[in-house]
Amino acid sequence: WGAEGHLTICRIAQSRLSKAAADAVEHLLPKYAENDLGSVCIWADHVKFRYHWSSALHFIDTPDNLCTYQYERDCKDEDGLKGRCVAGAINNYTAQLLTYNSASSQAEYNLTEALLFLSHFIGDIHQPLHVGFTTDRGGNEIDVHWYTRKQNLHHVWDSNIIETAEERFYNTNVEKLVDAIQKNISTEWADQVKGWEGCSANKKACPDIYASEGIKAACNWAYKNVTENSTLEDDYFLSRLPIVNLRLAQGGVRLAATLNRIFS
Ligand code: DCM
Ligand code: DCM
Ligand code: DCM
Ligand code: ZN
Ligand code: ZN
Description:
Blueprint: H1 3-14, H2 19-28, H3 43-46, H4 71-74, H5 86-97, H6 103-106, H7 111-124, E1 143-146, E2 149-152, H8 153-169, H9 174-186, H10 193-197, H11 207-222, E3 231-232, H12 234-262
Parallel strand pairs: 1-3
Antiparallel strand pairs: 1-2
Helix pairs in contact: 1-7, 1-9, 1-12, 5-7, 7-12, 8-12, 9-12
The chain binds 2'-deoxycytidine-5'-monophosphate (3 copies) and zinc ion (ZN) (2 copies).
One zinc ion binds at residues 127, 130, 154, 158.
């Protein structure tokens, strides 16, 4: 996601934290964030160049046209190093944050960075094309037109759908978008929320569930009926926006649920 997507997910998440998790997050956030998780959820994108090793941790490449995800098969980087993908990163930073209450291990990790990475990566794993095909690099190699502008399909899903919705329906105001998704979480999606929050017994993070949903959504919605040089306009925008809104909602609910389990 771009800045708006990450901001939305982190705003939703911070509003759903337990007392213990809210206190830990407040303690771990850098001072300049002023206890606003949303203001730093894009941080992991800013450090991709400084922390070169981290750039492979934002996505998963799955086999072309298979439309399935398996951790053992797919969670590796371009050099084949195991666990170096967004699902592996979520597991790793979850494990680091679990040392929050043990004084000895706290010195080993920068738990501020762990919180900022985890908050960003639980967002990214919900972007369907961050669990896309290998050869087209999650849609980065598919050139399209977004209305009249040249764009690539990945960027359409990271940013253009959200930005166009903001301009058209929310007066170019991201707070209004956040409010609209919050309202849907408590009405239209209310009976599904418990299911989103769930994770297997005694596991704190469940990224494989999110990645499996992601590649299905990529095949059923993002890649569907798109070819090189397609023009994407109202038909595509209006039919895909509900999927984007759902993924932002699930990302926010699940980031909160994960932090609540970690700091319980
Ligand atoms: N950070 C922090 N406190 C620390 C270490 C890091 O708040 N003790 C945050 C602020 C930076 C980010 O983590 O935005 C990366 O820190 P640095 O640039 O020092 O690597
Ligand atoms: N910074 C910021 N907002 C961000 C990331 C960084 O204002 N999202 C600022 C405050 C930090 C400085 O940049 O003190 C360096 O942070 P970092 O090294 O992580 O980029
Ligand atoms: N990306 C992806 N899958 C890939 C490569 C990149 O999902 N195989 C994502 C990471 C960024 C965006 O696409 O969000 C652009 O990546 P880059 O800047 O590496 O081209
Ligand atoms: Zn992206
Ligand atoms: Zn990212």
